[in-house]
Structures are given as C-alpha cells and as structure tokens.
Specification:
alpha/beta, UDP-n-acetylglucosamine1-carboxyvinyl-transferase, Chain, 2 domains, four-stranded mixed sheet, 14 helices, globular, binds ligand EPZ
C-alpha cells in the first residue's frame, strides 16, 4: 500500500489540464453494455475505479480494450452473463449502475449489494423502486440483488429521497427505460452534468430522451440500441480540487480543459472565500489572496456546491481566519477528514451535518490517514499548505478518482513523493 510524503509550503504555479470525469465515465461504460456493436469512449481517465468497471464488464463477457490514445473500446456480445460479483462490487459502489443495463439488455441482473461506506449509509432503495416501477421483479438474497423482467414497461417514477434525488439511481432508471416498452417519466431526477452526458451518449446509441439536466426526464423506449462514439465530459470535481490546491497554497494556477458552467456554485463559493478567479469557457486562472475569508458553505445536489468538493473546501476554510461553517446536505456524515485535519492543527469540530471551523493561517504537518477518495484529496491539499513534512497513509483511495495526482501537482511546484510501505 502506498503513502504520500508531502513537503508543504510551496505555492503552486503554472498550468494543469483536467482529465475526463470518472463519475460520467462509469455509467457510460455500463450503458455501452446495452448497444449492439462496438462503442468507443474517448477521454476516459486511467483510474482504479475505471479499471474495476472494466474488470466487471469483462466478468460479464464484454470485451474492453484501451487504445494507446486513451479511448476505451467496448464490445458487449450477448452471452447471457448477468452476475457482478461481490469481490469487484465491494471495491466500488458505482458497480450498482450495471443493474439497469443488465436488466434491460439481458433480462436479468445479479449484482452484489454494495454494503456500507465511510461517507454514509448509502442505500439503493430508490434504484430498486425505479426498476420495480418498470416491471422488474427484485429479490435480495445472499447479499445479492436479483432482478429479472421478461419485458420492461414504461412508467411514471418519482426518484426523490430524504437528501434529494439520486445520481446513479437516475442513471439506472434512465438506462433501463431506454429499452422499455412505451414512455417513462422520471420526476425528481438528478440534474448533474454526468446525467446529461449519459443522456447524450444514450441518444447517440439510438435512445429517445428529453429533459436530461432538469428534474423531469421523459424517455420513449426503443427496441434496440447500437454502439457509438463519445467523448466524456471533463471532471468538474478534479477541476474544483485544483482550484482549491492553488488557493490553499497561495498559488497562481491556470486550469485548462474544464467546463466552467459545471462549476458555477463552486466558482461563486471560492470567490466568496476571497480567491481571485478569472474564467473563460474552458479555462480558469486561480490566484490566491493574501488572506482567505471565512464563509458558510452548504453542499447540495447540482447545481449547488457538490458534496464531492465538501472535504476540499473544508480544508481551504481551515486557513481562513474567522469562523466558517460547512454543511453537507447530500451525505450528512461525510466528515471523516475532520479528525485528520485536527491532527494538522485545524480547529474544527463536527456538529450534526456541519463542520464548524475556527480558521487560522497556519497548519502543521502530522502523520494522517486517508479514509475515502475526497477526504484523501483534502489531506493532500492541507499537507501542501502545512509547515513541514506530512505523511499520508492509505492513499490508494485517491488513486480511485485522481489520475497521477502527485505528478500533476509536482509539475505545479508541489513536493509529493509516493512511497511504497507495508501498512496494515
Ligand atoms: C454519486 O453517487 C457519485 N458517484 C458520488 O461521488 C457523489 O458523492 C454522489 O453521486 C452525490 O453527488 C458516482 O457518480 C460514481 P446518490 P450516488 O445516489 O449516485 C441518498 C465520489 O467521491 N440515496 O446521488 O451513489 C444517498 O444516501 C463519489 O466520486 C437514497 O436515500 O449518490 C445520499 O444521501 C462518492 N437512496 C443521496 O441520496 C438511494 O437509493 C445522494 O446519493 C440512493 C441514494
């Protein structure tokens, strides 16, 4: 298991290019299973979660190849394999988005239940509710979801839950509905850019979808879908992480290849914290101020500030003098980074679904432990800003969602070394 040794105190300077979005790529890969013929997905980042999804697809008899230019070629075949096994699903909860495509294309799906997760309970009741409404029979048995349907029938489905809609649940129902008979209307659909990207991809495959990006998606089922070509959208969470990296280190970084319109709430928030942002379509120049301003930030479903940037923004506010409050309304328990940031001298405590921060300009280095993908990113950010030498254990979490992150930060002037260690 690798760790990062980070020498803090170096302002980041230069340019960085954003990779393709992991959270868009995973449902696209699952959807490719529904097409007749080969699909080519360009710009898919080379990450651990993408490799896990590739392994799952191969388990299902799908041919997956990465070309030297980073395009994934996916050819489904039709061999009737329907099981996504626990061994792979437990490595990545997003495996659950195979449920809809398998059910629609192969009439049956056996997908291991993803189980608990450090960012919260993460139920999948809304996925199952949506697929049942389309006519699937669903049983939970031996830790597996067993879903079957000789034919899916379009239906009206409300996908709202206690914390808003569900991103992957919307993907699952939208994908299955593409091959259902008749019209499906998803009310309280998730609006994330990743849903819009999936809808555009499915439309290229021959699906008929209207309203993606709004809370009401209308899908008219078609008898079959075909392979196609598609370029995945840029990763808005990676772009936001680089914004915070520049701001927290007192740097000046230009981020290229992003979609600023996907980050309106983040741009507004980071500006409120006092950071100078110059945006222009696919580019954002981030210049840190002399002092950061304490703020109140609430993570909400899109178009709000994403929960996937909550930990990183919390780390930034640790350096803003005054009192800040960060609330997560999507995953109210996603605060594993709080205890680790405290080890670095942050004055921060959790109260319900909020973190209350008494900011101070200096952080000090300490050995810390990464707990999940975005919390790991927050620790890397804090470590780059801290005085001294921070060791971050268990950084395999960060490899799930950020490609070669230490190299890319080092190109901007960070000093991060990946070290192999035997750690329990
Ligand atoms: C997606 O997860 C992302 N994952 C997550 O990113 C992201 O944090 C999350 O959306 C929210 O934006 C992928 O796209 C692969 P949800 P998802 O269903 O779809 C509750 C990262 O760091 N809920 O939108 O699984 C749920 O508990 C990852 O890259 C139900 O109650 O999240 C949460 O409170 C982590 N019942 C809220 O809805 C359900 O059936 C939103 O979850 C499903 C969800």
């Amino acid at each position: 298991m690798d760790r990062f040794d980070v020498q803090g105190g170096n302002p980041l300077k230069g340019e960085v290019h954003v990779n393709g979005a992991k959270n868009a790529a995973l449902p696209l890969m699952a959807a490719a299973l529904m097409g007749n013929g080969t699909t080519r997905l360009a710009g898919i980042p080379d990450l651990r979660d993408i490799r896990t999804m590739s392994a799952l697809l191969r388990e299902l008899g799908v041919d997956v190849n990465r070309t030297p230019d980073g395009t994934l070629e996916i050819t489904p075949g039709d061999n009737g394999r329907i099981e996504a096994p626990y061994e792979l699903v437990r490595q990545m909860r997003a495996s659950v988005c195979l449920l809809g495509p398998l059910l629609a294309r192969r009439k049956r799906a056996r997908v291991s239940l993803p189980g608990g997760c450090v960012i919260g309970v993460r139920p999948i009741d809304l996925h199952l509710k949506g697929l049942s409404a389309l006519g699937a029979e669903i049983e939970l048995e031996g830790g597996y979801i067993d879903a079957s349907a000789t034919e899916l029938i379009g239906s009206e489905i409300y996908l709202g839950g206690p914390h808003g809609s569900t991103a992957l649940g919307t993907c699952n129902v939208m994908m299955a509905a593409c091959l259902a008979k008749g019209r499906t209307i998803i009310e309280c659909a998730a609006c994330e850019p990743e849903i819009v990207d999936l809808a555009q991809f499915l439309t290229k495959m021959g699906a008929r979808i209207d309203g993606a990006g709004s809370h009401r998606i209308v899908i008219d089922g078609v008898p079959e879908l075909h392979g196609t070509e598609h370029q995945v959208i840029p990763d808005r969470i990676e772009a936001g992480t680089f914004m915070v990296a520049a701001a927290i280190t007192g740097g000046d970084v230009t981020i290229r290849g992003m979609r600023t319109e996907h980050l309106s709430a983040v741009i507004d928030t980071v500006r409120r914290i006092g950071v100078d942002l110059e945006t222009d379509g696919d580019t954002c120049r981030v210049r840190a101020p002399d002092a950061l301003t304490a703020s109140e930030v609430i993570a909400l479903p899109y178009p709000g500030v994403p929960t996937d940037l909550q930990a990183q923004i919390t780390a930034l506010l640790v350096r803003a003098e005054g009192i800040s409050v960060v609330t997560d309304k999507v995953f109210p328990d996603r605060f594993m980074h709080v205890a680790e940031l405290s080890r670095m001298g942050a004055q921060i405590r959790k109260a319900g679904s909020s973190a209350i921060i008494v900011g101070q300009p200096e952080l000090t280095a300490a050995p810390v432990m990464a707990s999940d993908l975005r919390a790991s990113a927050a620790l890397v950010l804090a470590a780059m800003a801290a005085k001294g030498y921070t060791i971050i254990h268990r950084i395999y979490h960060i490899d799930r969602g950020y490609g070669r992150i230490e190299q890319r930060l080092n190109n901007l002037g960070a000093r991060i070394e990946r070290v192999q260690e035997d750690y329990p």
